[in-house]
Amino acid sequence: MNQNLRFRHELKFMINRHQYYILRQRLQGLARHDEHAGQSGEYHIRSLYFDDIDNSALHDKLGGIRERRKYRIRIYNRRDDLIHFEKKIKKGEYIAKLKERLTRETVDAILAGHIEVLNVREKPLLHELYLEMKQRLLAPQVIVDYVREPFVCPNGNVRITFDKELRTGLHAVDLFDPDLRPVSAIDDKLIILEVKFDEYIPEYLRAALQLEGLRQQSASKYVICRKHLKTNSWEDY
User: Fold this and answer.
1) Is 71 buried (19+), middle (13-18) or exposed (0-12) by CB count in 10 A?
2) Per DSSP, which regions of the chain are E strands?
3) CA angle in degrees (0–180, nearest 5) for 135-141-143
4) Residues 94 and 7: beta-carbon distance below 8 Å
């Protein structure tokens, strides 16, 4: 794909509820909630992750491969008026993301196996998905479900998110299934803190977050949720 990628730093931490309340309180006067969060300051995210016949996304992550990619379809607040297909590219601690908007009809067609709807050469990202599904048997694997509380700061273009209530759809792949009841994927007391920024984090934010005192982790929501799909005892995710 001939697109200019904009890479950003991404740091991830697993924190407990006590740490969350402290950090959230500190951020109140230093950053603002993302405008998309609404009055509650939160919104719901549901993503359907794809992987190929070799489970490359899963094994590259587990193997610590520094350059890797993931494909997903994402919706917000369980609605179908804003749907994105996304490709996330990771290089060490740097990430870039490409996305293309989808219609509900296109998603329904993909889930039904009618991948020709993606064979659109004027939309390179969708055409890439089509080729991956046709040649590498890329297919939906797991639904990842959580509540996000986002803070943003224009200085350094910093985005700080608290991702709570991480749940997995197990073997379900229908994002819009009204009867879907995702199950908890991690201890409810744990929250994933993500910090994304361009070139720098303002010192006042770094001091408030005390990043040096937190233990940085990979905290891949996809891997955490995939571990619930193990069918053999030797599958150690």
Assistant:
1) buried
2) 8-16, 32-33, 43-51, 67-76, 83-91, 94-102, 139-153, 158-168, 183-184, 190-197
3) 140
4) yes
Q: How far apart are CA 229 and CA 237, in angstroms?
A: 10
**What is d(CA 163, CA 169) in angstroms, rounded to the nearest whole number?**
17
Amino acid sitting at position 160: I
Q: Of 79, 85, 90, whose CA–CA distance to 36 is shortest?
A: 79
Q: Give CA–CA dist 49/68, Å, rounded.
A: 14
Neighbouring residues of 197: CB distance < 8 A, sequence distance ≥ 6: 8, 9, 156, 157, 158, 159
pLDDT at 230 (0 to 100)? 63
Task: Summarize pLDDT for 112-170 with one digit per residue, the tens.
Answer: 999 999 999 999 999 999 999 999 999 999 999 999 999 999 999 999 999 999 999 98
